[in-house]
Amino acid sequence: MRKQIISGLAAIAALAACATAPEPALPQFAADVPAPVASVDPRVKFKDGERYLRDLSANLGIPREDICKELSRYDCMTDAFRIVLGGVEAPNLLVNEPIENAALTSPIAVDRVALHVCSNRVRMDREDPAEAVLFKAGAFGADGRARTPDAEWLNATADAIYGSILMRSPSEREIQNLAAYYTQVADGRAANSPDVAADWVTLSCFAVASSLEAVFY
Amino acid sequence: MTRHLSRRNFLRTASLGATGAFIAARAPQDAFAQEVMIERAKNPRFLIVLSSFGGANQVDAFLSRRESEVPNAKTLNAYPDDMVQTIGEFRAIDMKGPSIGAIPAAFTANQSNFVRKHNNDMMVVTHTGTSVNHFVAQQRSINGNAAWKGRTLQEAVALTYGAGYAIPNVHLVNGTGFTERGTDNTLPAYVYGERAPTPNLWPLSLDGYRGIAGAPDRKLFEAARKFRNERLDPSSDFFRTFSGSQRIKHWTNIRGDALRGVEAEDLITKLMLFPDSEEMPLAAHGLTGSAIGQKVREAFPNYEFDPLEAQAALAFMLLRYGVSVTVTLGPEGSAVFKKGVTLGEGGLGEGDIVNPPISFDFSHQANRQVQAVMWNRQLSIAERLISLLKSEEFRDGQSFWDRSMIYFATEFGRTRRRPDNAMTFGSGHDLNNGSLIVSPLANGGRVLGGINVDNMLTYGFDPTTGRPEPGRQMTEPEMYSGIAHALGIDTAGSNLPDMRAMRRQA
User: What is the rounded radius of gyration, in angstroms, for the C-alpha atoms of chain B?
Assistant: First the structure.
């Protein structure tokens, strides 16, 4: 019982910490673009899974049929998460209308799909650098020596991620956020490692591809 | 979302482990309400809705009548005397036949084995509905025709007992009125039904990371989620413009504590019914099947091709692992054939049809044969679920079954007339029927109400004593109330009638 209480306290404390941790300080910008005015009638729609995957397929240059496979054989949308990602399947499941509100598992499914897609893209980039879309490894040593990525490479990659996934250029704040995030990914590892850089590209891609702006429209 | 537990309740939830963590994340502000939530999570009741699509007709089963008992037996749906067995207060029909109406497949169907075994937990209650439209009647069978602000029985159970459960209300069958969301929009989000349409792949949606080849380390992945939630999204123009949207608020809420709670339970493993195989290459992706998978697959060996068996298997696992307090399953509209059977190659053999097309509703074509096949199917599923639930201890020597109820929800009955002495005939929809409820919590061993042998329609009973009352028709709100009360749901303020006769412990 004591063990159960301790583990329960730990779980609750963890949730409490998640709920009350102070917001990390954002980078300060002297001349940022003024914040937009909040909509007085903020209506957004959930981008159903098929549309979401087709967009990523087109923008990241991965054929739709290959972009996301669960267990390497089941299409993430058609076979695995069609309903929780807002799709319909009338012939067999009799689901004629998409779910009205996101299911508890919907954000998890979106995260899985985004991680699948971004991991795929970065793997493809590393396998064929000449056709790389996101992870352009030139900064890591055309001369065969790795070096810590510079601001230019970070900015260019951030620009590629936003441009590919959200079809827009990132703001200065967004670029700075992603660049600052590199130190977090590299924490405890060699910052000039291509693996670290690849992880950063994968996870930055994941964060943008599963962001509110990517999931809703 | 920040939640606050009182100090006393903080310590009490701590003793509940993961259950306590979910309560902490969902706790209401009121300390007394928190205490109630904690107590109910510790002593849950489980509702299994075994939906019976198309009209599971009581006069073809537990309320059947012999021709010798019915004055106009020639034109009413009464059975030959030697087909009707009497077991306690119940009747049962066992039947064999060379075809299911126009479907040339022999069948053997049995009701008596189930009745003999579960007689003491069976309760049949008569009632008359208000719609013969499939979808509408399905909805009313689980919301009592909006008896309690429109909330469904499943939602009421999830609200009462589900705060400490990861996904309290799971719908394994979809696209029916039995799983339609209720119309009470004031309930917390976690009580509404979660769709789990594909039992083999759905568990993958319970973890955002595991099983994805080439992904960075999990710690980095979690940090990326935090970065997205706390820095990237809040600083985007999109969020600052649309942050007031209810959809955005709902999304950011469920991808927080609720998501972490679900993943912490390792449900992607616990609920993985399928074993490692060529079709489900789990090991190659760092995944494993459930520890109780073998036991469950042995109980439901047709899980690979029969959607209902797969649903039932996952339903048991959801209850057994403390994930849910209510599950809804049932046959779908499609025909199901035995594995390996293909049409047009030498005809169909005995038992090749596992589920006729449109389930009970194929009674339009052949009432008796379809009712026999479908009741046999439903009872077989229930029997195996009960055995599994009895085999697992909940606490202090009590099994999961001791706290469970199976409600065979159905839309309506079938018309009672037949051509003179016909054995094979079609039937229509009829408002009049009854429901089977199997549970240690119900007034078991009882038929509440009766049959008017002049027209084979059911009549009602006294809600307090259960005494038969010819001329009375029980209503949908009364059924809803009786089930809710048998499950220990507090309906104070709802104006629902007291249906003491349906409870085991009045």
Answer: 24
User: pTM of this prediction?
Assistant: 0.91
- The shortest CB-CB distance from B205 to any of A89, A109, A203 is to A109
- 132-161 in A: which are within 8 Å (CB) of B? none
A2 to chain B, any CB pair closer than 8 A? The answer is no
Given a contact cutoff of 8 angstroms between Cβ atoms, the answer to whether B60 and B92 are in contact is no
How do the pLDDT tens digits run along chain B, 506 residues long? 445 667 666 666 666 666 767 777 776 667 777 777 788 888 999 999 999 999 999 999 999 999 999 999 999 999 999 999 999 999 999 999 999 999 999 999 999 999 999 999 999 999 999 999 999 999 999 999 999 999 999 999 999 999 999 999 999 998 899 999 999 999 998 999 999 988 999 999 999 999 999 999 999 999 999 999 999 999 899 999 999 999 999 999 888 877 888 898 999 999 999 999 999 999 999 999 999 999 999 999 999 999 999 999 999 999 999 999 999 999 988 899 988 787 766 678 888 999 999 999 999 999 999 999 999 999 999 999 999 999 999 999 999 999 999 999 999 999 999 999 999 999 999 999 999 999 999 999 999 999 999 999 999 999 999 999 999 999 999 999 999 999 999 999 999 999 999 999 75
Q: Using CB atoms, pick whichever of B174, B238, B254 lies closest to residue A107.
A: B254
Comparing alpha-carbon positions, the chain B residue that sits nearest to A126 is B214
In B, which residues are within 8 Å of A207 by CB distance?
Answer: 224-225, 227-228, 232
Candidates A26, A19, A57, A66; CA nearest to A176 is A26
Query: Among B192, B285, B195, which residue's Cα sits nearest to residue A82?
Result: B195
Q: What contacts B112, CB < 8 A, 6 or more positions away? A: B85, B87, B92, B94
Measured distance CA(B120)–CA(B468) in Å, rounded: 19
DSSP state of B177: G
Classify strands B169-171 and B122-128 as parallel, antiparallel or unpaired.
unpaired
Q: Tell me the C-alpha distance between B206 and B211, whole Å.
A: 11
Q: Left (φ > 0), alpha (ψ -120 to 50) or beta: where does B249 sit? A: alpha
Report the interhelical angle of B18-26 vs A2-20 (nearest 10°): 30
C-alpha to C-alpha distance for B264 and B268, rounded to whole angstroms? 10
